[in-house]
Design a protein that fits this description.
The structure is a single chain. The protein is an alpha/beta fold. The chain is 23% helix and 30% strand. The chain has one domain: Dinitrogenase iron-molybdenum cofactor biosynthesis domain (Nucleotidyltransferase, domain 5), CATH 3.30.420. It is built from three helices and eight strands; from the N terminus they run ββββαβαβαββ. It is globular, with a radius of gyration of 14 Å.
Length: 127
């Protein structure tokens, strides 16, 4: 199964819609293989869902994510594991082992369309 993790500098990026890229990996049993970095190209939520689907991704692991992004991913058959932080390598190993700590209800609570220059790196999160 192909898994994507929001990534910046080897760390899980905290916001799906603003991620600079994804680490893609194949998970077979407890093994992680074939890791590659896929740049996001600065795309928005819907385009990112398309990008992941076009690359055969079945699972997304991320930090924060909004409801519209969840819906876009669900429409592509991509399962979401939000509320994850830390080293991408360890996150992938934990996912493969079935021990990934995530928060299914974790979401981004701010509104998008930041005409005022809001910095998406300073989100408020709902528990």
């Amino acid at each position: 199964m192909k898994v994507a993790v929001t990534t910046e500098n080897g760390i899980v990026f905290p916001h799906f819609g603003k991620t600079p890229g994804f680490t893609l990996a194949e998970i077979d049993g407890n093994a992680v293989s074939g890791q590659v970095l896929l740049e996001s190209g600065g795309s928005g939520h819907g385009a990112l869902a398309d990008l992941l689907a076009q690359n055969g991704v079945r699972v997304l692991i991320c930090g924060g994510i909004g409801e519209s992004a969840r819906n876009a991913l669900a429409s592509k058959g991509i399962e979401v594991f939000p509320g994850v932080f830390g080293d991408v390598e360890q996150v992938l190993a934990d996912f493969a082992a079935g021990t990934l700590a995530f928060r299914p209800d974790f979401s981004c609570s701010h509104q998008h369309g930041h005409a005022d220059g809001h910095d998406c790196g300073s989100h408020r999160y709902n528990n």
